Amino acid sequence: MNHELNAIIAIAARDVTKLLRDRMRIVFSFMFPFIFIGILGQSLQANVASSLGFNILLFTFVGVLAQTLFQSTASGLISLVTDRDSDFAQELFVAPISRYTILTGKILGESLVSSLLIISILFLGVIMRIPIDWFRLFLILPAGFIACLLGGAFGVLIMSNLSGTQSAQQVFPFVIFPQFFLAGVFNPITKLPPVLYILSRIAPMTYAVDFLRGLYYLGKPEYSKIVLHSPLFNLFIISILFVLYLVLGTYLLVSREKNR
Amino acid sequence: MANVIEVSRLIKRYKNSPDPSVNNVSFAVGSGEFFSLLGPNGAGKTTTISILTTTLSKTSGLVKIAGLDIDRQSSAVRQKIGIIFQNPSLDPNLTAEENVRFHAALYDLYPYRPFYSLMPTDYKNQVTHLTSIIGLTASDLSKPVKALSGGMKRKLEIVRSLMHQPQILFLDEPTSGLDPLSRKNLWDYLTQIRKSNGTTIFLTTHYLEEAENSDTVCIIKSGKIVALGSPGQNKKNFAGRHTTLESAYLKIIQDTN
């Protein structure tokens, strides 16, 4: 097996092993989806769905799915900062592998972790009897991996600028939470004032959420009310952002690590 | 004896720092040698070792490890070295054996498998052999790292760092925080490794008795070398009446104030 590939698999497997032994993280993976879908989604469905002309609970469900895949992977990459604080990162950075290998392994590992964590969201969809087209949803779930990759690359860029766990805990909510609203996770954003429109198109989560929604609602009557861009366009933007974030983030990370 | 570490006019100035932490340092370490780098806190020991192990860039100078340039051939350099860091670098979320297995994959010694039972027989034999030398049992290997004592963790780190049979082993204050018995056991093991494998040892330590058996002692202060030679030479040059390296060291440091 190729050396770099062997290292990528080992790094990814470590992240999955950590998740399976972290019961609190698994429990907490139910919390935010319950708040967003169970409380916020149901409230919006009861109060504004009729004026919107589509099921906003289902809209929120798909949005939260994409958001979880993106955010969970991003926060997993930022955990490299914690590794650095606990000095385990030394073992990674003195190994005879490239920095791209380390980050690719982390992105792959955290993407797998995110993919496992969405089981809680699917379970919530069942118990809340959300009118999901399950066949279509399972068809597009592999595409959710693309949302993970974008989240991971975004996490690399953010992490490369953080000095420690404390700054990660302060900065991460600030860069993630506004994106929930700018990306339209649970609020329609087909019409926005100019400033919010620009901010929304800068937020990478927008493309991840719209990509999954575009695939889910493709061919359905509410497509034009919900989806911003075609799935192909979103995929194109996601690809560019992925390469940009990963290359820039890796460069900044290596510079920061070595050029102290 | 060919030199495996060559340092020539090494300078490191940290960002926003007016003075260099390592200031025009030059030395060489022969193959199989035991080299100790001593100095007070803030002297530049950890900075020097960080540069030699490719985790920190230098400001200027030339550094070669096993004939390889650390800037242009850093990946090849990392294949030749093993490192015991000042702070423990084990993953507390994994078991002892999983930490070793992870290292084996990073160094491409064996293909990674998710379970120990799936690993190649050669891997299992190597792990059993190495861990038996340091007194780790099969039960210890399956324990989470956080359940191991400080001494056991250090030994595990050494076992891990020797899996890929490095030419040079860098030890940055390896016995810091260990009790005297653990320190003795660790050094007995390192001495055995050095004899059997011919591994070059590069040590930084505050326990000067650990450096008594060195081939060469280099004393650094405020980023500059103030003494370089065998322990006997250092004792003779700086404090003829003194019989321990520690007392010679203290004399050197005080004289250079």
Quick summary:
Chain A: This is Transport permease protein. With 260 residues, chain A is an all-alpha fold.
Instruction: Note the beta-strand portion of chain B.
Output: 15-25%
Helix content estimate of chain B: 25-40%
Name the quaternary structure. heterodimer
Order of helices and strands of chain A: HHHHHHHHHHHH
Distance between the termini of chain B: 35 Å
| Biggest interface and residues each | A-B, 29 and 33 residues
What gross morphology of chain B would you assign? globular
User: What structural category arises from helix and sheet content of chain A?
Assistant: mainly alpha
H/I helix tally of chain B: 9
Structure notes:
The complex is a heterodimer of chains A (260) and B (257). Chain A is mostly helical. Chain A has one domain. Chain A contains 12 helices and no strands. The longest helix of chain A is centred in the first third of the chain and has 30 residues, at 23-52. Chain A starts with a helix and ends with a helix. By secondary structure, chain B is of the alpha/beta class. Chain B contains 9 helices and 10 strands. Chain B has helices at residues 45-52, 74-80, 96-106, 121-133, 138-141, 150-162, 180-197, 231-238, 245-255; strands at 3-12, 22-30, 34-38, 60-65, 68-69, 81-84, 168-172, 200-204, 216-221, 224-229. The two termini of chain B are 35 Å apart. The model of chain B has no long low-confidence stretch (mean pLDDT 88). At the A-B interface, helix 1 and helix 4 of A face helix 2 and helix 3 of B.
